[in-house]
Specification:
By secondary structure, the chain is mainly alpha-helical. The protein contains 20 helices and 18 strands. It has a three-stranded antiparallel sheet with strand order 7-10-11, with no helix packed on it. A three-stranded antiparallel sheet has the order 12-13-14. It has a two-stranded antiparallel ribbon with strand order 1-2. Strand 10 (383-385) and strand 11 form a beta hairpin. The model is unreliable at 1-21 and 23-36 (pLDDT under 50). One of its GO terms (molecular function) is calcium ion binding. Ca(2+) binds at residue 586. Pathway: Protein modification; protein glycosylation. This is alpha-1,2-Mannosidase.
Amino acid sequence: MRGRKRSLLGFAVFATLFYYYCLPFTSWSSSGGGQGGELESARLERLMNSDAEKTSSLRSNSSFDWSKVRFKYLPGGQLRRPPTGRPVSLPQVQHPFPPESPAATKIRNARRQQVRDLFCKNWKSYRKYAWRKDALQPLSAEYKDQFSGWAATLVDSLDTLWIMGLRAEFDEAVAAVADIDFGTSSSVSVNMFEVNIRYLGGLLAAFDLSGRDLLLRKAVELGDLLYAGYNTKDRMPVDFISFEAAKTGEGLMVEGSVVSASPGTLSLEMTHLSQVTGDPKYYDAVSRLMDVFEKGQAWTKIPGLWPIYVSMQTQDVVNGSYFSIGGGADSLYEYLPKMYALLGGLEPRYGAMSKDFIDAANRTFFFRPMLPAEEDVLMIGPARVEDDGTVLLDPESEHLGCFVGGIYGLAGRLFRRRDWVDDLGSKLTHGCIYAYRAMPTGIMPERYNMAACRSRGRCPWDSARFDAEAAKQQGLWSSHLPLGFTTARDPRYLLRPEAIESVFVMYRITGRREFQDAAWDMFASVSKGTATKYANAAVLDVTRAEYPLPQEDYMESFWLAETLKYFYLVFSPPDLISLDDYVLNTEAHPFRRPKGLKRSRPL
């Protein structure tokens, strides 16, 4: 309780007692507004932010001041600042939703309440068995610290608590954030990528929503820690910060090779930290880093795309023969249109980089799978480039790639490309929905293979060809798999959010009820198959409907930060975390977009 005012002790006790009730949230009468015509976002802000000054006296518990480190390697020249001025008039992203019928409102609110109830069950167990630890183990009711011991689940879930209207739980969690000591770590090195997206992203989003000044102070502490990761000869970031060495300021050594997503996913959070603090150093660091990716984009073996492995040590993002838009590379691409939106369209290079990768990825990674009923959907697979320049697609899809449909939808709106929304975004999202619905459990496996059609045109089912493709899988095909799947190479479900993420985004962009209905089917299957006594657990095999499904004592913080948040938002009124007001980072943390000119209507 170091540094807190005595007057807050009673409040903390009240918050702890009130927590266990997890009271139902008031339902709103329409999709566009609340009782008496009030928007849900406005009502929620009143509920969650009234008397917020009570937390202003909270003091940060930190044993080390990262802002005082004297770096050996300093940025050359004048620091770059985020572009200022009135943002350009970007198109409206969200569908103009009409009023909702009372019957539809009743169904939607009932579904949303079920999502909220499940979150509350999980949070109660985390609060009881793993409070201030990184993760709850949902089978044993124990805990683990895998992300430096800074309460990853707590910080990652802050904005979910706010969005779900859990005021007492949110206030208690904010008070707990004050005691996180970013001057110590349970591990000798700190992963820049994970700390950036989960911790810094979580703190910034919770600050944007609540205005609690403590959260911004903690974000600055953490931003200064991450900034130390750029104290290298060429000002390129390390992948892992050697914690004690970083404190000396003597400089760090950049690793020889990293997956491209690691450095490529640092831009959004550090840029937003500069936006909300006015300190340009964070933006300056990532802006120089993105120079490397910008300069190399047209010179790789697949122009427009970057290889999975890059070297920040040599600033080589060009040489490499293996390419993917899934795991290892995913959020590098995700952040390009999101940076364009976050900067209000005032940094054109992110628009150009977005368009280049979107066209190249469409040519390289996407394929229509051969299916018994000839469903017209798209799947995603990695590719490699042969010595003669031939590009070979591997029709192995993964859950991590399911975010792509939503990104094509978002970019299609931002850059006025209807085909990216209606054709590519929709078909990619429906491909992941298909993978969920095809499995007997209703849950998509982590990795699977399918037979690729020879073209995206008509693709009749060919049993002989399917048998031949299945035979190529070296014994990984099994007769219990749904027809069309040649493997379930990794049959697990790890509580991942990428599929529901795209379903949510495509619903908000198009307004099509089919996406909301798909979300409910997914939630019903996932909540059933992953349920434990205490919370929800990863499933070891989703290809056999033998309940209870085999589970692993594992629950990542993104289950509460992303997966359940997206399920909740898809059943919420569309003004709540509107895509015209927020950009969500890769951990589903919403950052406020700059206010600008009146947006044009959607396409």
